[in-house]
Amino acid sequence: MINFPSSPVNGQVFTAGDFSWVWDSTPGVWVLQAQVVTGPTGPTGPSGLAPATFVDIVSPYNVGMGYQAMNGTSPAGLNNVAIGHDAGKAITSGGTNVAIGLEALSLNATGTDNVAIGNLAGRGTTGTGITAIGYWAMKSNSTGGDTAIGYAAMYSNSTGTNNVAVGAYALRSNVTANRNTAIGYYALNVSIADNNTAVGALASYSITTGTQNTALGSNAGRGGTTGSNNTCLGYYATPPAGNTSNSFTLGNNSITNLRCNDTTISSLSDARDKSNIQNIPLGLDYIKALRPVMFDWNRRPKIDEDGNEIINEVFVGRKDFGFIAQELDTVQETFGYEEYTRLVHKDNPDMLEADPMKTYPILVKAVQELAAQVAELQSRVGN
C-alpha cells in the first residue's frame, strides 16, 4: 500500500519506488506521471560499454518505452507515443505523434500529427503531418506533408512536400521536389523533379530531372530521364528517347491493335487559336513522290536497361502495308516544309517513327488538283 501525503498542494510531486505522481487539485487526485526504470548498475556491459539506462514514461498524455524514448518530452508535448531506442527522443512541445522503432521520429521536437513506424522511419522529420512506415522510410525528411510506406521509401527526401511513395525504394532519391506520387517497387527511384506520377513496379524508374510525367504499368515510362510532360500507359510503355517531351505512349511495341468505339481522335483546331493561315503549297506531286509498300516485319532485337536482348516475337514475320520512314524523310526534305509535315520523328535515331497521317491535308489538296484537271478535261470534251 502506498501512503500518499495527507495535505498535498496543487502540483506537488510524490515519488515512491520507481513511480512518481503529481497532485491535481481540480479533480482532487494524484496523477501518475512516470515510471522510471534504471538499468543494471554493474561495472560495464558487453564490449566494455557502460550499462544502458532507460526510461519508460507512462502518463495520461504520453507513452514512452525504450532507451531515451521521448527523452525530451516537456509538459507541453501531449498525446505522444514513442516505443523503441531513441524513438521520439527530441520531442518537447510536439504533440499527437506516434514513433515506433529504433530512432523513429528521433529528431522531431515541435512537429505534430506525425506517424513513423519502423527503424529510422521519419528520423529527420521536424515538420508536421508525415506518415512514414517501413525501415528507413523517409529517413532524411525534415519537413511535413509527405507519406512514405515501404522499405527505404522516400529515403533521401529532405524538404520536398506533398509527396506520396508506396513501395520499397519508391521515390528514394527525391530531396527537394514536390507533389510526386510513386506507387510500386522502385517507382520514380531516381527522380528529383516535381509533379511526376508513377504507378507500377519500376515505373518511371530512370526519370531524373523530367517533370509532369505520368506512367501507369510495370516498367511504364522506363527509359525516360530528362523529358517532361510524357504519358506512358501499359506494361513497358516507354517514350522514344530519354529526353523526349510532350509525348503520349499507349502500350509497348508488341501492341497490334488499338480499340475504341470512336475511330477518330479530335484535336484543337479553332481559327481563333491560329495565325498566318494560308493555302498549303503541296499537293499532287508530293503524293506521287510517296511510295506505299507491303512488307514483313523483322524487328531488330532490343537491348533493355539491364543489358538483356529482347526479341519481339509478336512482330516476327508479321505482314503489313505502310511506308518506310527514311523514304518519307527524303520526300519531305526534297519538297521542303518539313517543319509543317513532321512525317518522321527522330527522337531516337536508331528507331525512326513515321506519322504518315500528316499527309492527309496534302492528300486533300491533291484530290482538289485532280478534280480541277478533270473539270478542265470535261470542259474541253464538252466544247
Tag the structure with descriptive keywords.
383 residues; single chain; three-stranded antiparallel sheet; 13-stranded mixed sheet; 4 helices; alpha/beta; 22 strands
Q: Give me the oligomer status.
A: single chain
Mean pLDDT: 88
Number of helices: 4
From the N-terminal CA to the C-terminal CA, the straight-line distance is 129 Å
Can you walk through the features of this model?
There is one protein chain. This protein has 383 residues and is of the alpha/beta class. Among the domains are: 163-255; 278-367, no CATH class. The protein is built from 4 helices and 22 strands. The protein has a 13-stranded mixed sheet with strand order 4-5-6-7-8-9-10-11-12-13-14-15-16, with no helix packed on it.
Set out the fold topology.
Blueprint: E1 13-16, E2 19-24, E3 29-35, E4 57-58, E5 62-65, E6 80-83, E7 98-100, E8 115-117, E9 131-133, E10 147-149, E11 164-166, E12 181-183, E13 197-199, E14 214-216, E15 231-233, E16 248-250, H1 284-289, E17 293-296, E18 302-303, E19 309-310, E20 319-322, H2 325-335, H3 338-341, E21 344-345, E22 353-354, H4 360-382
Parallel strand pairs: 5-6, 6-7, 7-8, 8-9, 9-10, 10-11, 11-12, 12-13, 13-14, 14-15, 15-16
Antiparallel strand pairs: 1-2, 2-3, 4-5, 17-20, 18-19, 21-22
